[in-house]
């Protein structure tokens, strides 16, 4: 079954007027489709245009040109329906310290015009594991609880798409795992998730597909697996029974990264060398290989290469 697009963006531009000679392109001809039900990653360094893109959908930034369609609604013709189809979890924690989670969610639902009989406040509190804190002041919540409350606020009008803008910036590892679990739960319920992050490990762990933005342009858009397959460099660590001497020029594309006693770490390009060549080179030195460990590289390698180019 073909998944339908829940978000389509064509030739989206946002130009901030600069001096006469040089306008500032925050987004430059952005083209993007997100499918219903996926977890989609928007990656890029600071200033790449990720937050501008989210703010255009939220209605707080006006686009310069291009077409945006969300859940079948055109942003130019139906801005209110577009906003109603999107939930946004911002980077900054902006909660009224004197309201309880329940009160905040009820208030937010009121702002979205959700009738009292249609509100699902308790369901949302349960979903983000805040039912026990439902009536405590927001100021008494821990950092992790506040993050989850922001997520809850984005869900009161039951939007089909939720944007998470750098959800785990400045968050410890345990909390990050916890937030990821919450995101997966939401996704299992059928919510499409769009995640902006500069933690590449987060994108690798969570996303089905990834777009990499740099200076307002998409420099890559593919499934996470295909992006990882683009990594040409492989690293290998050999432990041997005696010290060996290997040099870069022994095999094409080989680089000796480090040597410590009987342990040597090298990298090579997968397209030019197969691991047997390396093993044979080491055995030529009359040594026994005690242990081999390999590292396939990660999204960081792809990211840095694309952004350099």
UniProtKB/TrEMBL annotation:
Keywords: ATP-binding, Nucleotide-binding, Transport
Domain of life, source organism: Bacteria
Residue span(s) of domain ABC transporter: 7-240
GO molecular function terms attached to this record: ATP binding
SUPFAM superfamilies: P-loop containing nucleoside triphosphate hydrolases (SSF52540)
UniProt KW Ubl conjugation keyword: no
Descriptive protein name: ABC-2 type transport system ATP-binding protein
Organism: Pelagibacter ubique
């Amino acid at each position: 079954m073909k998944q339908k697009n829940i978000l389509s963006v064509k030739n989206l531009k946002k130009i901030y007027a600069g001096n006469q000679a040089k306008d500032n392109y925050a987004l430059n001809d952005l083209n993007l489709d997100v499918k219903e039900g996926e977890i989609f990653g928007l990656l890029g360094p600071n200033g790449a245009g990720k937050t501008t893109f989210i703010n255009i959908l939220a209605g707080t930034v006006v686009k310069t040109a291009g077409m945006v369609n969300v859940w079948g609604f055109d942003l130019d013709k139906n801005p209110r329906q577009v906003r109603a189809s999107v939930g946004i979890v911002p980077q900054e924690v902006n909660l009224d310290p004197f309201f309880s989670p329940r009160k905040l969610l009820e208030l937010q639902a009121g702002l979205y015009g959700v009738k009292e009989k249609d509100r699902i406040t308790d369901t949302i509190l349960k979903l983000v594991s805040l039912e026990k804190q439902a009536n405590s002041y927001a100021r008494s919540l821990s950092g992790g609880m506040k993050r989850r409350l922001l997520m809850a606020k984005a869900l009161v009008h039951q939007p089909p798409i939720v944007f998470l803008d750098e959800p785990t910036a400045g968050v410890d590892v345990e909390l990050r795992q916890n937030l990821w679990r919450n995101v997966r739960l939401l996704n299992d319920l059928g919510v499409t998730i769009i995640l902006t992050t500069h933690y590449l490990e987060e994108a690798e762990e969570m996303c089905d597909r990834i777009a990499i933005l740099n200076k307002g342009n998409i420099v890559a858009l593919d499934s996470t697996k295909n992006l990882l397959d683009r990594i040409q460099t492989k690293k290998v660590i050999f432990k041997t029974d005696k010290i060996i001497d290997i040099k870069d020029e022994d095999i094409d594309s080989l680089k000796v990264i480090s040597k410590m006693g009987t342990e040597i770490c090298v990298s090579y390009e997968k397209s030019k060398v197969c691991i047997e060549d390396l093993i044979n080179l080491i055995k030529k030195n009359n040594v026994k290989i005690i242990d081999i460990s390999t590292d396939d590289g990660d999204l960081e390698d792809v990211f840095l290469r694309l952004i350099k180019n």
